[in-house]
Amino acid sequence: MRLLLAAAGMTVMFSQPAAAAALTPEQIAGLKTQAVAGVDSRTKLAQVMTDEIFSFGELGYQEVETSKYLTDLLEKNGFTIVRGVAGLPTGWTATWTNGKGGPTIALGSDIDCIPKASQKPGVPRHDPLVPGAPGHGEGHNSGQAVNVVAALAVKDIMQKEGIAGTLVLWPGVAEELVGGKAYMVRDGVFKGVDATIFTHVGDNLVTTWGQPMGTGLVSVKYLFHGESAHSAGAPWRGRSALDAVELMDIGWDFRREHLLPEQRSHRVIADGGDQPNVVPSEAAVWYYFREQSFANIKKNYEIGNKIAQAAAEMTDTTVEHHVIGSAAPQHFNRPMAEAAEANIEKIGLPAWTPQEQAFAKAVQKTVGAEQKGLDTKLKGLEPPKEKPESGGSDDIGDISWIMPTITIRYPSNIPGLPGHNWANAISMATPVAHKGVVAGSKAVAMTVLDLLTRPDLLAAAKTYFKDVQNKDQHYIPMLAADDKPQVQINADIMARFRPEMRKYYYDPKKYPTYLDQLGVKWPPVEVAEAAPGK
Fold first, then answer.
1. Which of 49, 312, 348, 417 could form a disulfide with 145 if both were Cys (CB 3.0 to 4.6 A apart)?
2. pLDDT at 11 over 70
3. Within 117-167, where are the H helices?
């Protein structure tokens, strides 16, 4: 087995695929037809996986039920499981090899959810399952369904046709905290992998190459230490750690004006003290510093450290800081993206029903977005912008700098939603999500077959990675050797909400769909009445 699951340095290594018998374009097209049929035959599995993971609704580092469900399923289908990779209790790899040699292709997708995003699926208004609880307000419940269904379809073909190679599936742990992938990269989890296809929920079937819109980041928590005292009786004897936090925030806000406009930075006060009549001896503030290049991320991180130290000196406190996670700026592989786009064009978007379109418009109306419904036209593959816009981050960026990587987005959500919000959960266990997952699985399966059977494609991907992507910029890890995943984060929240959430776990043995289990009529009555033809 050529995938090494051991700690290692940052050296980029590519295995040499064994020479494969050349296949004609017609033969490869025939394999892809088999892959599409294999995905279609697993439509029920796609629905069950999407719904079941939705019902778990687990925050980052606490994806216990989700990881158990996925690894059990993959183990039953012949994959070798390695659990707890890179110090992540919910991290794992699932590996299956056919024959000797051949490429090793990895498929990844995130599994965590969003705080306070509990929502009944299929209800086009705010209606939490468990008030205050987390939920899949980004749609991470669906990506592993895309990958597993695609992998099983490809696995059947590899066995039937004698195609050599290795498939590796893995989860994006705590992506909302950018707290998993950089640790997996640092600890050598992906050594020996030739290429990665990552999947993420979207509202169209699309991929990209080059540097996309967005940023990289470093996530840092600053812990200030002071001295407590009676806030009224002897405040002069106290040294307020909270004052230091507030002074750091003020300092950063003033400095922000003099940073490049592409930067994004934000914070939460993670610990503001205990009660007003006690001078806070401990306080903490948690920052995300985002920028579009490694150099500028590092620069802003160093400025943050300097301001934190100055705030400590002004208050006679001390400060320490810890990196919680990081995400490299993303760069995706052009040859792989072009191959994926050719497959996407053959698949097309799902055929949405009038009821599904009316449902999407009802959700858009709820959030004040343009009521244009679900996309009916592919966006197509576009060249990267000369100056990509600033925006969000994803730690798939780290993986994109150690091997050829692309992200395929699939249409399981609704255009125009706010993101990181309960509204983004509304469609995610409905026929809209299920159709989008199936479309995404077909695109992934067909592209994996390209990588397994076209040595020219994999060679071109590696050439682009080496000679174009890495020409002027190289991977700079933000994690130190002694940084550890902060796996205690969110444990208290899940402990508080999980007992009530467990009552709503999906039971596919009793109910055809999660909507059936919840008693949610599909399509919703108000949507059915508004649909054309009614």
1. 49
2. no
3. 143-161
